[in-house]
Amino acid sequence: MNTRLVLTSAGGAAVALAAVVLAGIMSPPRRVEAQNRGNNDEDQLIRIGYEIAPVPLNLERKNGEQRRLVGLGSYIVNAQADCNGCHTGGAPPNFNYANNGNPYFLNQPLGTVTDPTTYLAGGSPFGPAVPSSASVGGFLPNSIPPSYPPAGYPTDPNTGFPYAGPGIVSRNLTPDKNGLPEGGHTLEQFKEIFRTGIDFDNIHPTCLSPTDPNVALGICIPPPVDGSKLQIMPWPAFHNMTDHQIEAIYEYLSVIPCIDNDFAPPPAGAPNELRNDCGDTASRHGAAVSRHDTQPNARR
To answer: 243-253 and 64-75 are packed helices; what angle lies between their axes, rounded to 10 degrees?
Structure first.
């Protein structure tokens, strides 16, 4: 009888302990809960988006719903996708950061100090889409293709290895004088870029053969690379975004300052690719208001 009582009590204690452990698993610590509060709430993301936008935003002609999209787009561009990390027009030593604001340097405070004069203006070099296999000591076993470029391509005088195509340079994402992002793309074109990676400018087509004249010009990319697609851009991941998210990015890019990038080296064969028709910039952005004064009514 006593043994039975002890076993019953032990079983009850085990059940109670399991309940406590389960409750601990299901209920996050109070500090974490506070950090997570609102993270999945779009109003919260919109508020953060306006707080972290590193440049003045021209919201003069945007309605309430468009302003919400701008805030969400800023959050995606600046807090999630780090678009400026690749599309900056900056150069060493600070790249996309302002002078004395590079967080990777010693004795720098936490946070991001973006250089607004190069923000999303394009011009960052990334090298060829696929390097010559000879330049990297060969590809891994069973790679497809086993080597690159295909046989017959001439030696690139700049590298001393078989020609592997031009270096890829990031594009200018700032809007033109009409407020169309990436120098004039419509929303439908922008969505197609995100969904399929299409390069509407087609500046680096696939080489037709080793004797293609574009090889000598250093413009085309040897197969199997598809030159009709934007290389480097992570569109294979971005294509999973919803229309709502892509529209938010588009709206955000439509209100940032236009930059006519005449300071970064352009892509091979496309000397005007980074240039932008900003028109009367002073007129377009003279009415731009500070990002800190443009937050829609969001739940705090």
So the answer is: 90
Rounded to whole angstroms, how far apart are CA atoms 243 and 224? 30
Q: How many domains does the chain have?
A: 1
Any domain includes 244: yes
Strand partners of residue 57: 289
The answer to whether residue 138 sits within a structural domain is: no
- How many angstroms separate the CA atoms of 198 and 41, rounded? 32
> Taken in order 74, 77, 80, 82, is the CA torsion positive or negative?
negative
| Residue 83 and residue 233 in contact, taking contact as beta carbons nearer than 8 Å | no
Q: 3-class DSSP state for residue 198?
A: strand
Say if 251 falls within a structural domain.
yes
Whether a cis peptide bond, with omega within 30° of 0, leads into 93 is yes
Q: Which two tokens stand for residue 59?
A: 């919201």
Range of the domain at 96: 38-129+165-293
What is the Cα–Cα distance from 21 to 35, expressed in whole angstroms?
22
The DSSP element (H or E) to which 139 belongs, if any, is: none
- Which secondary structure element, helix H or strand E, spans residue 46, and what is its range? helix 42-52
Q: What does each C-alpha distance from 135 to 128, 144, 168, 227, 231 come to in angstroms?
A: 12, 17, 17, 21, 19
Average pLDDT across each block of 10 residues of the chain; the chain has 300 residues. List them in order. 38 41 38 42 96 97 97 98 96 94 90 93 97 98 98 96 98 96 95 97 97 98 98 96 98 98 96 94 40 35
Within 10 Å of residue 133's Cβ, how many Cβ atoms?
Answer: 18
Residue 149 within a domain: no
